[in-house]
User: Fold this.
Amino acid sequence: MARPSPAHRRQPSRFTLQADELLNDAPERRTAQDDATVKFIKRVLCKKHADPAQDETTAPEVDGNLEGLLPRLTSRSDIDLQLYAILAVVLSQFVQSWYNRITPDADFVGEVVQIVAHCTRGLEHRLKLVDLDSLLLDELPGLLDAHLQAVDVAMRSSHVPYGNSIAAVYQTLRPHNALLPLPVDEASILSQHNNEVDWSQLFVDSILPLLLPPEDLVNPCLDVVVAEIFSGIIVRNAVMGRACQPWLLWEGCAKAIYALKPKPPSEAESVSSSLSKLEQSGLLSSSEAVRHDTSRQRSHIAQTTISATWAILRYIVLSWTFLRVFLLALMQASSLPFRSRRVMQAKGSSDKLVKAAAGLDSVPRPMIGMRIWCCIGRLTSLRKRMPWLTGCLSLAQHLSITTGVCGTNSAIDRMMSAHIHERLLRPALLPPILQAIRSAVFPGNVLGPARQPPSQTETVEIKRECARAIVDVLPHTARTLYFATQDTALMQADVESTLDLFTDAYLNKNLIVAALELLVVRLFPETAETGES
Assistant:
C-alpha cells in the first residue's frame, strides 16, 4: 500500500472515533459504480501535482486504498464514499478550475480535505448529542404547523376588501430580518437581496469557528474559501435559491412517491396468471376456461354474503395478528433504555455546550404528544373534514398522556421511539440519499445544466402531477372515506388546493430560513447564547 501524502495523512482530532462505532461499520459492498466513484475521488483529491493543462480524467491514478489515502469523515465508510464524491465534484468544478491556473501546488486540496474532515467529524459528534426524536417529530413539525397557519391566515386576509398582500400579512405574523423589506420594487428587491447575502455570511461565520480546527482559524485564505463554498454555493444558491421554488418541491414530492411506490400488477395480468396456474396444474382445461367467467355469475345476495363472511374473517385475523404483535413488542419494551435529553447527559461534552443547552426541558415530550400529529392534521384538513374524528383522537391523546399509559418513558413511548430509530433513523439510509442527490445535481460527476424555470402552464402541470401521485398512493378505501367521493378528479383538485399553500417561493424561503436556524441552534447551542447576547 502506498504511503499517504503528508497533506492527506490522518491527523488527530479532538473528536475521536469510538472503537465500537468502527466495529459496527456496515460492510461495504463494492459495485462497478462505486469503483468508478473511487477512481474519480483519487484523481481529484489524491493527486500529488496539479498540472493546469491536465484534466482530471487523464490524470494518473493514485495507488492504495481510499481509507489509507484520505482521512475518515464519519464512522461509516459507505457514507464517507458519498461525501468524498460530492466534495470531489465541488472542488473540481468550483475551486480547481481557477486555482490550478494560478499555481500547480496540490497541497491546498489536501488542506481543504483535512478541514472538511475535521468539520464532518465534529458535526457527527454533535449530532449524537441531539435529541432526534424531539427535533424531527416535534420541533420541525411544529415549525411547519406554525408556517401553514400563518399562510392560511394570510391567504384569507388577502381576500378581504382593501386587504394587504399575502407576503405582507405573513411578514407581520412571522417577520425575519433576512427577508425584509418586502421585494415589491427595484430598491426593495436590492435591499432584500443584500440582507439575504449578509444573513448567509453571518449564518456560516457563526458555525465555522465551532467546527474548524483552531490552527486553521488564523488562515484567512482557507477561511474565505470554505466560507464562500458554504454561504454562497450551498446556503444561498442551492438552499435559498432553488429549494424554495414551489415547482421543485412538487416535482420532488412526486418523484419520491413514484420511487417508493411499488407497482401493483394489473387486473388483466392477475386474472390471466390465476387461470394459467389452474391450467398448468390440470384443474382447468382450455374448454372449461371459456366457461369460467359465466360460472362466476351468481346472485347478488350470495355474493354479498360470501364477501361479508370473508371480510369478517380477514378483520378477525388482522386484529388478532395486530394484538399479538403489539403485546410482544410491549413486553420487549421493558428492556429498552429510557429516553432523555442526550445533550444534558453526554459525556465528554464541553461545559459551554451543556450550559447552552440548559434551557431545554430535561424531560422530553412523549411520542404521542409531539406536534407532528397536529401538523399532519393541518395538512390533511382533518379538523374541517372529520371534526368528530379529530375530537375523539384529541380526547384519546389527552387521556393516554395524563393517565401515564403513553407518557414519557412509558412502555409504549419507548417502543414507539425504538421503532422510529430502527425504521427511519438508520445510518444505512443515508448513503443512497447522498448518491441520489449527487446524481441529480452532478450527473456524470460534472455540474449539470441549469434547469430552466418552467412556464406557468408547466408549473400547473407539475402541481397536477404531484396531486395525482398523492391520490394514487392512497388506498382506495381510505381515500374514498377521506374525500367522501369516488371521483379521482375531485380528489386531485382537493389535493391541489392543499399544495397551493406552498405556491409562493417567498413564503417557502421564510420556512427554509427558520428551519435552518432551528437546526443550527440544536446542533450548536452556543449560537443561541450569541444571539441572545
Summary: The mean pLDDT is 79. Residues 41 and 309 are 62 Å apart (CA to CA). The chain is about 65% helix and 0% strand.
